[in-house]
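Morning F.,

Quick status update on the modeling queue. The single chain you submitted on Monday has been processed. Sequence for confirmation:
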Amino acid sequence: MKYETLIVGILETNCYLVYCPETLDCAIVDPGADEEKIFQLITKKNLKPTVILNTHGHIDHIGANRAVKEKFSIPLCIHAEDSQMLGHVQQSELAIFLGATDSPSPDRLIKEGDEIEVSKYFLKVIHTPGHSPGSVCFLGNGFLLSGDTLFFGGVGRTDLPGGSWQELESSIKNKILTLPGDTIVLTGHGPATTVAQEKSSNPFII
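Structure tokens below.
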């Protein structure tokens, strides 16, 4: 399983294209903005989108859901606890600033332990509440898509509606830091890191 990273939108959200190198079937993770930029890379790599995955429901991670879904007619997946966020984008002043649009309703509500098929590979769903009630990470072969739960040297904010420091701390310590140290952490913003790196030096969790 391979992946490509795109930085999209004013808030510089990391959107990921996770794909099978043999079939080129592709999951689009967190299409937050700049749909044309996403489309261009998909075309360049000859990828075949099969599913949209949201790590959580905040605007900067879902802003291009509608454009992507309409172009490729593929299912949209999010955790049930964040699904209500998808239809309320336009009610936010931040949405106007970001150029985000309301997302379609999800086609599938994912939960802890679910596996998302990408050709012959799978992404395992790990429910990691804290940044938002329905935040999830996706575990692939040697890498973790952490959304806004864990960053390089940082953690997700918990002062937004539904956020909880206690839940975030528990999610990170019990569900992420227990993974093999060489697991690459592909964050929702900023550079990638590893479990070992964060376990040893992240000031918020050591």
